[in-house]
Automatic annotation (TrEMBL):
This is Predicted protein. SUPFAM superfamilies: SGNH hydrolase. It comes from the Eukaryota. Residues 8-224 form the SGNH hydrolase-type esterase domain. PANTHER family: ISOAMYL ACETATE-HYDROLYZING ESTERASE 1 (PTHR14209), ISOAMYL ACETATE-HYDROLYZING ESTERASE 1 HOMOLOG (PTHR14209:SF19). It comes from Hypocrea jecorina (strain QM6a) (Trichoderma reesei).
């Protein structure tokens, strides 16, 4: 019996979600939350943009069938590579309007919609161009290949797609990461002023911890993401109630001879 699936569709921000960073793994935490009820499937592809995803949609998703898993949740996190600045040394840029068009194609793909999944659309997180500048120059670029303001504009397009497509739920990762970064160093940001991580502000605040290389989340950043997601997936699961397991609990298969009261297993 195939387990219903939760698919993480995106770029390196999802590919790296399978790793343990500073003692936290986003994918492991999500799978633990959904264990025995859903399979978490990682379809994060480092370096991909929305053009790439749209091209390969027919190979990523299939029509529902009795022998194939149902797509129960689709979590989409794309845009960090679309927002790469068009330079002589870069190749990943997707114009803002086409980025929005591509997101619309993904959330309305007939194969995906046939499963009637809950679709969670995640904005790309902020870019810390202060840190990225040195790293990008070291790789042979003339300057930082991502801009704080440009990445913010791609996050806004993702918000528009969520607003304009009924049933698509927005996870505002940009706002969550920036809000946490400001709370970690409130003196580095003035309300209404330039955002943390921009050259105009000149300070990184908590982005230095949340985005260790200026682009990818570290363990603390993934924790912020997971906390945002928890309100939308698995929130109705009661771990001690096992009647919704896809395959039965051992107590059903092998009834205990003594009527014991099970206690939740603690892994801490």
């Amino acid at each position: 019996m195939p387990y219903p699936q939760v698919v993480l569709l995106g770029d390196s921000l999802f590919e790296f979600a399978a790793s343990s960073l500073s003692g936290f793994s986003f994918q492991a935490a999500l799978q633990s939350r959904l264990i025995r009820r859903f399979d978490v499937v990682n379809r994060g592809f480092s370096g991909w943009n929305t053009d790439n995803v749209v091209k390969y949609l027919p190979e990523l998703f299939f029509e529902p069938s009795p022998s194939a898993p149902k797509l129960a949740y689709l979590i989409i996190l794309l845009g960090a590579n679309d927002a790469v600045l068009p330079m002589e040394t870069t190749s990943q840029h997707v114009p803002l309007d086409r980025y929005k068009e591509n997101l619309n194609k993904i959330v309305n793909d007939a194969r995906i919609r046939a499963h009637n999944p809950k679709i969670l659309l995640v904005t790309p997180p902020p870019a810390d161009e202060i840190k990225l500048k040195d790293l990008d120059i070291a790789q042979g670029h003339a300057s930082a290949i991502r801009s704080s303001a440009v990445t913010a504009s791609y996050a806004e397009k993702a918000r528009e797609v969520a607003r304009e497509n009924p049933g698509v739920v927005l996870i505002d990762l940009w706002q969550a990461i920036m809000g946490e970064a400001i709370s970690m160093a409130p003196g580095d940001y003035q309300p209404g002023g330039p955002w943390l991580g921009s050259f105009e502000n000149g300070k990184q605040g908590g982005l230095d911890t949340l985005l260790p290389d200026g682009l990818h989340m570290g363990g603390a950043g993934y924790r912020v993401f997971f906390d945002e997601l928890k309100a939308h997936i698995g929130q109705d699961i009661v771990p001690e109630e096992r009647g919704d397991y896809v395959l039965p609990d051992w107590r059903v298969l092998n009834p205990p001879k003594v009527n014991l009261v099970p206690k939740p297993l603690s892994l801490e």
